[in-house]
Amino acid sequence: MKLNKKPKHIVILTGAGISAESGIMTFRDSNGLWENHSVYEVASPDGFQRDPELVHRFYNLRRQQLLSGEVHPNPAHLALSKLQEKFNGIVTIITQNVDDLHERSGSRNVIHMHGELLKMRCIETGRSLTIKKDIHATTPCPCCLKEGNLRPHIVWFGERPMHMDKIDTELHSCDLFVAIGTSGHVYPAAMFVDTARERGVQTIEINLESTQISDSFDFHLVGNASVETEKFVEELLT
Ligand code: APR
How far, in Å, from the CA of 184 to the mean position of ligand 1? Predict the structure, then answer.
């Protein structure tokens, strides 16, 4: 990997692949099915309207797994937090993941474009709240006190990702773009590399395998995110 110049502002986009080694299943590996339900049943506004209890059960289980003590940040998360701490410049992490493993590894100001598993949102007021316990279709909302007004603070299929203005600003001011563990199947995240590249920014992909957007990257670091991210961070810091 030979960079044109020393970067000053790095934008890092992470996907499910960075959390795979922490024991959280990636999306494409699950073949679009979860315990025989299509992901549209459990991750779309229509699905929630049709069967809110099923959707809550799905996210309750994912939240329980995240909080179980079995899931920890892996060396890839830790390497990125070290980079944020030691790099002489700006390091912005944008994640498509709804887990909190970047934060648990010490990273700051992580942009969660697809929401957060440990938050719920009041449908009436739009306010988001940190909630770690199980939620049911009849749980009263702590915000408006009405039953059935809480939904997962997650961006579902057909919904607009969060923080897009901030992300756009980052993509238009960075001088190095890195994507780690994302398949490039979901837009607009899959287009971020093109936005950066159109400005002449160098781009790096870290992934176990080549993806449908691999051609858009200048450099490919192929392997486990834990190993490749650590190596990449060491190289940048020396
Ligand atoms: N190290 C590096 N890459 C890995 C590893 C690993 N240990 N394990 C898996 N990968 C790669 C896979 O090769 C794949 O390219 O991670 C990628 C995971 O892809 P997806 O499962 O499609 O996850 P992601 O790209 O984050 O999905 C985007 O889709 O359903 C939506 O909202 C959901 O945020 C999610 C979005």
Answer: 8
